[in-house]
Amino acid sequence: GAVVSQHPSRVICKSGTSVKIECRSLDFQATTMFWYRQFPKQSLMLMATSNEGSKATYEQGVEKDKFLINHASLTLSTLTVTSAHPEDSSFYICSARGLATDTQYFGPGTRLTVL
Amino acid sequence: QKEVEQNSGPLSVPEGAIASLNCTYSDRGSQSFFWYRQYSGKSPELIMSIYSNGDKEDGRFTAQLNKASQYVSLLIRDSQPSDSATYLCAGYSGAGSYQLTFGKGTKLSVIP
Q1: I need a labelling partner for B91 at 20 to 30 A (CA). Which of A18, A104, B59, B68 fits?
Q2: Of B41, B100, B104, the CB nearest to A104
Q3: Contact across the interface for B98 and A97, Cβ inside 8 Å
Q4: Residues A17-45: tens digit of each pLDDT
Q5: Quick one: A66 exposed, middle or buried, by C-beta within 10 A (0-12, 13-18, 19+)?
Q6: CB of B105 closer than 8 Å to CB of B6
Q7: Segments of chain A with pLDDT less than 50
């Protein structure tokens, strides 16, 4: 149980384009989903927290107009990187928390490369 | 500010030995703790959670929590080369956001 999927697993795009990443909880309802970013050999960095049906809460320094998060259902959250630039190249990982639990289960991650 | 501290390592142990990974936390209000394993280039994978003082065992893994000392540890018995990874300690303070505070991780290398 507690499986989280992400799609796509890897994406390469041109600078200036937008990229959408999907995060799905496959066998549980995710009350809260979290989006992280991780640069090579660095720690996980929390970008934002989203609750189903509510606006996402962004961490300090994360541009909410650049990283659009939608959590429209209890099993799906999306992160859209708008007008991507090479410095946005990173490993984006989502995690999900079910109802009445504080445990986060991570998706497999999406590796974004912006040329 | 809530902090979770881990020795970044690398921690090297021979195959078959016990690996001991340690973590301290600053927030006395933290209620639950998690150990995640992250292989290079992969996302974190939950190994164990612990909520009460004492030990919790799951196969070759034992998590230990001492709330008075604000200390969490993970023991890996009979270490295998496949255990080589970065181990992340995380704490949850009980706040409504359900955010976890992660340590920077300890890199473990198990030498065959």
Answers
A1: B59
A2: B100
A3: yes
A4: 999 999 999 999 998 999 999 999 888 99
A5: middle
A6: yes
A7: none
